[in-house]
Amino acid sequence: GAGVSQSPRYKVAKRGQDVALRCDPISGHVSLFWYQQALGQGPEFLTYFQNEAQLDKSGLPSDRFFAERPEGSVSTLKIQRTQQEDSAVYLCASSLSNAGGLYEQYFGPGTRLTVT
Amino acid sequence: AQSVTQLDSQVPVFEEAPVELRCNYSSSVSVYLFWYVQYPNQGLQLLLKYLSGSTLVKSINGFEAEFNKSQTSFHLRKPSVHISDTAEYFCAVSVRNTGGFKTIFGAGTRLFVKA
User: Which terminus of chain A has a smaller tally of CB atoms within 10 A, N or C?
Assistant: First the structure.
C-alpha cells in the first residue's frame, strides 16, 4: 500500500510483558516519528528518526521504552515490562522532508495497546 | 516550554451553520502551525498549515485558519459545515528542536455536525 502501516493494530499485554510495535513508513520517507495518544488526548511526541539516526528521544517516558530504525525504513517501538499506564494508542508518522516535524506528516492507523 | 490549548473539547453544530474551532499556543520561539483532522476510523491527516507568508491559509474543503501572532492563536473556521465534516480536529505547532522540528499537539476538538 501507499500509506504508513502499523502492526499489530491491537495488542493486549499482561502487566510485566514486553511488547514490540512495528511501523512501515511510506517508501522513501526520511523522517519517522512515534507518538503516544492517551484516551481523550492529542498525540504526544515520543521519538524522531532521520533515516537510521535517532535524533530526538526526549519524549520517551522511561528507560522501558526503546525505538530503533536500523536500516532507515521499518521502525520498531519496544516497551519492556509493560505497566497499566502504558495503555494508549501508539501512532507512527513519516515525512519526506529531513526537517523533522516542519512539513506534512503522514500518520498510520495506530496500534492500540491495552495492558491488563 | 511550548504548549497548545484547544479551548473546546466538543463542538456540536447544525449542518450549513458556521463553525470556529479555537486554538492558542505558547512559545518563546518561532512556530509553525498546523491543523490535522481525524475522520471516524481513519488516521490523522493534514488539513492546512502555516509556515510563513500570508497569515490566512485555506484547505481544499473550505476550511481556513488565520495566524495571529499578537494573540498567539490559529483558529479554524468554516462558513458552512457539512455532515461529512464530523471528525476530531487537532491543532499542532512545530518548533525547532534537537535534530529538527518537534510537533506538539493539542488535546483535540470533536466537531459533531447535526442534520
Answer: N
B chain contacts of residue A42, beta-carbon cutoff 8 Å: 4, 6, 90, 92, 105-108
d(CA B63, CA A5): 28
d(CA B43, CA B21): 20
Say what the pLDDT of residue A24 is: 97
Alpha-carbon distance of A58 to A48, in angstroms, equals: 9
Q: How confident is the model at residue A100 (pLDDT cuts 50, 70, 90)?
A: low
User: pLDDT digit string (tens) for B6-35?
Assistant: 999 999 999 999 999 999 999 777 788 999
DSSP states along A69-106? -TTSS-EEEEESS--GGG-EEEEEEEESSSSGGGS--E
Nearest to A42 among B101, B102, B106 (CB): B106
Contact A40 B107 (CB under 8 A): yes
